[in-house]
Amino acid sequence: MLLATSESLKQDIEKLTNEQLQQVAEFIAFLQFQEKRKRITLDPVLLAPLATEFAEEDRVLAESGMDDYADMLAKEDQL
To answer: Mean pLDDT in runs of 10 for the chain (79 residues)?
Structure first.
């Protein structure tokens, strides 16, 4: 594994082209995003009301296509 120090990284960065610097900046932003994502915790107590709130909507959406599906199955059975 490569051991990198702040000083050696600074020296390497000073040698990069603008395009390479942009890539490094994007990678740093990605690493920071990953770190923030690791710290996010979802509280089940807060999620339960959302599940309840959307349960009826989910049921309606699930059932809305069932008639078409049943018709398709009936047609396949006739073949």
So the answer is: 84 96 96 88 84 86 79 85
